[in-house]
Design a protein that fits this description.
Elements lengths: L3 E9 L4 H12 L4 E5 L2 E4 L10 E10 L3 H15 L13 E7 L26 H10 L12 H7 L6 E5 L5
Antiparallel strand pairs: 1-4, 1-5, 2-4, 3-4, 3-6
Helix pairs in contact: 1-2, 3-4
Length: 172
């Protein structure tokens, strides 16, 4: 079984944000080996602004699970932590996004997967709340479409929203 390094964005802005993130990351460990884990960052919401601030981090997961199956598993973890269907960018107890699945590229128009799989995440290069924690753990990772490192994408980003280091994620 081939193992792929996957980077997953994790965020929460409802309830006990840190506990929600810890619970989700621990649940992820059943799908592979948790590797790199960024610090937690408190960030302003993007899109719908009238909601609490988020805690965000990025984790590395070494997995042999296919990307479409992993995405389905992430959606199940979100449900287990209390996420309900709502409007785009709504407040949520947990949000799990596949940022990179190795160097692979998945376009939804080429796949029949449900939920919708698009990797690399189509907006990660525009979001400081993703790039800051990702640069902490994988600064030299090259975006397979944009062909720039995470650190380079971050250095070129005009940051308009606050991203402040908040603490460390403890999984023990």
């Amino acid at each position: 079984m081939a193992v792929t390094e996957v980077f997953i964005g994790v965020g929460s802005n409802m309830g006990d944000r840190q506990a929600n993130i810890t619970s989700a990351v621990k649940a992820l460990s059943q799908y592979g080996k948790i590797g790199l884990v960024s610090s937690l960052y408190e960030t302003e919401p993007v899109g719908f602004a009238e909601q609490p601030d988020f805690l965000n981090c990025v984790i590395g997961l070494e997995t042999g699970i296919a990307a479409a199956i992993l995405l389905e598993n992430l959606k199940e973890i979100e449900k287990a932590v209390g996420r309900k269907s709502s409007f785009r960018n709504a407040p949520r107890p947990i949000d799990l996004d596949i940022l990179f699945y190795g160097k692979r590229i998945f376009k939804p128009e080429l796949l029949e997967s449900r939920p919708r799989l698009e990797v690399p995440h189509p907006r990660l290069h525009t979001r400081a709340f993703v790039l800051v924690p990702l640069a902490e753990i994988a600064p030299s990772f090259i975006h397979p479409v944009i062909k720039k490192s995470v650190q380079q994408m971050l250095s070129e980003l005009v940051v308009e929203k606050r991203v402040a280091k908040w603490g460390e994620l403890t999984l023990t």
